[in-house]
């Protein structure tokens, strides 16, 4: 009889039985990301494979933290007696603040938890730091790297060191177990792109006279 016919499966069950190619690809990439991140977290704890290198990784971590960069830029801005230097430092401060806001917004939207092997022992954190995507350190490192290379006259060895610093900061986030690989990769790309926004919105005595009047 017609009543004995099997009832159709709910739509969500059909999706589970016949997942899309995109869903399979994303799930596979996520699994690879989590696996690689755990394997590369060699400094995540004292007993990790490279636990002895953890203090060095934490020094690198501090070098990419937002607070030292914000305080150092603000201090330089207050002490500078050159109008050209003040313009560059003011835009660097603007870039750092924009970076903080953008990363906080993306983290709040994505809400990806940090790796399970993460041992968060930074000297200071804020509430949004319980989320992992993207890496704020990586975003900041890429942004500062591009900013410095465009606005400071440096010898080639120093330019290479600046690029290496940005890459090492990103790598240290995975080695310390703070972030997954994709958190860092996206952070580096976001920071690189964010510099273009800063250049487009460049603050100058003509475009923002009120700000320059304060200094």
TrEMBL record:
<keyword id="KW-1133">Transmembrane helix</keyword>
<protein>
    <recommendedName>
        <fullName>Polyisoprenoid diphosphate/phosphate phosphohydrolase PLPP6</fullName>
        <ecNumber>3.6.1.68</ecNumber>
    </recommendedName>
</protein>
<feature type="domain" description="Phosphatidic acid phosphatase type 2/haloperoxidase">
    <location>
        <begin position="88"/>
        <end position="199"/>
    </location>
</feature>
<feature type="transmembrane region" description="Helical">
    <location>
        <begin position="89"/>
        <end position="110"/>
    </location>
</feature>
<feature type="transmembrane region" description="Helical">
    <location>
        <begin position="184"/>
        <end position="203"/>
    </location>
</feature>
<keyword id="KW-0443">Lipid metabolism</keyword>
<dbReference type="GO" id="GO:0005637">
    <property type="term" value="C:nuclear inner membrane"/>
</dbReference>
<dbReference type="InterPro" id="IPR000326">
    <property type="entry name" value="PAP2/HPO"/>
</dbReference>
<dbReference type="InterPro" id="IPR036938">
    <property type="entry name" value="PAP2/HPO_sf"/>
</dbReference>
<keyword id="KW-0812">Transmembrane</keyword>
<keyword id="KW-0256">Endoplasmic reticulum</keyword>
<keyword id="KW-0472">Membrane</keyword>
<dbReference type="GO" id="GO:0006629">
    <property type="term" value="P:lipid metabolic process"/>
</dbReference>
<keyword id="KW-0539">Nucleus</keyword>
<dbReference type="GO" id="GO:0005789">
    <property type="term" value="C:endoplasmic reticulum membrane"/>
</dbReference>
<dbReference type="Pfam" id="PF01569">
    <property type="entry name" value="PAP2"/>
</dbReference>
<keyword id="KW-0378">Hydrolase</keyword>
<feature type="transmembrane region" description="Helical">
    <location>
        <begin position="147"/>
        <end position="172"/>
    </location>
</feature>
<comment type="similarity">
    <text>Belongs to the PA-phosphatase related phosphoesterase family.</text>
</comment>
<dbReference type="GO" id="GO:0042392">
    <property type="term" value="F:sphingosine-1-phosphate phosphatase activity"/>
</dbReference>
């Amino acid at each position: 009889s017609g009543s004995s016919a099997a009832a159709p499966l709910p739509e969500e069950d059909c999706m589970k039985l016949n997942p899309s190619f995109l869903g399979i690809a994303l799930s596979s990439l996520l699994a690879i990301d989590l696996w690689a991140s755990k394997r590369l977290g060699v400094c995540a704890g004292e007993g990790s494979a490279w636990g002895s290198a953890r203090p060095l990784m934490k020094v690198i971590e501090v070098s990419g933290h937002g607070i030292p960069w914000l305080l150092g830029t603000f201090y330089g801005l207050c002490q500078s007696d050159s109008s050209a230097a003040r313009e560059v430092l003011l835009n660097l401060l603007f870039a750092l603040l924009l970076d903080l806001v953008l990363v906080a917004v993306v983290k709040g939207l994505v809400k990806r938890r940090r790796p399970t092997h993460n041992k968060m022992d930074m000297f200071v954190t804020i509430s949004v730091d319980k989320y992992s995507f993207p890496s704020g350190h990586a975003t900041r490192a890429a942004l500062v790297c591009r900013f410095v290379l465009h606005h400071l006259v440096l010898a080639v060895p120093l330019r290479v060191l600046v690029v290496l610093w940005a890459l090492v900061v990103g790598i240290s986030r995975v080695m310390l177990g703070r972030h997954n690989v994709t958190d860092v990769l996206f952070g580096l790309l976001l920071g690189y792109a964010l510099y273009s926004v800063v250049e487009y919105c460049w603050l100058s005595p003509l475009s923002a006279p009120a700000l320059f009047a304060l200094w």
